[in-house]
Amino acid sequence: MLASSIVWWYFVEADVLVVINYKFGTKLNQQLKDRFSELREGTRIVSSLEFSPLNFTISERTLGDIGCILSVKKMTTTPDGVSWTAAPFSYYVHTVG
Q1: Cα 43 to Cα 40: distance, rounded to the nearest angstrom
Q2: Spatial distance between the Cα atoms of 25 and 23, rounded to a whole number of angstroms
Q3: How far apart are CA 93 and CA 54, in angstroms?
Q4: Among the residues of 1-97, which ranges form H helices?
Q5: CA–CA separation, 88 vs 77, rounded Å?
Q6: Which residues, listed in sequence order, are joined to residue 96 by a DSSP beta bridge?
């Protein structure tokens, strides 16, 4: 999927990406993180797992991490859940800065 430049062009042009990544492996999640630096400023990524820690801090050791350009908010669905589950769950909204 990520190897296709045509597919990635659509991602780069998007204002919002929805990534249901709770079942993705470490390798695919890392490939996505590596490509997020190509997204436009202001792009939002909504995901089931965070791509950067909520408490990320920039330091010499983390300068190459995608967390340097992402702000992350943890959100929770209503107590009634959503269409596919009655249980509430958390998701993350990342904004490219």
Answers
A1: 6
A2: 6
A3: 10
A4: 5-13, 26-36
A5: 5
A6: 70
Residue type, 41: E
CA distance 41 to 88: 30
> Do the Cβ atoms of 40 and 12 come closer than 8 Å?
yes
Query: How many of the other CB atoms lie within 10 Å of CB of 48?
Result: 15
Of the candidates 5, 1, 71, the one whose C-alpha atom is nearest the C-alpha of residue 38 is 5
Q: Do 44 and 25 meet the contact criterion of CB atoms below 8 Å apart? A: no
The answer to pTM > 0.85 is yes
Query: For the chain, what's the residue count?
Result: 97
- Tokens 């009634």 sit on residue: 80
Tokens 């009655």 identify what position?
Answer: 86
Q: What is the pLDDT along the chain (97 residues), one digit of tens a residue?
A: 556 666 777 888 999 999 999 999 999 999 999 989 999 999 999 999 999 999 999 999 999 999 999 999 999 998 888 888 888 889 999 999 9
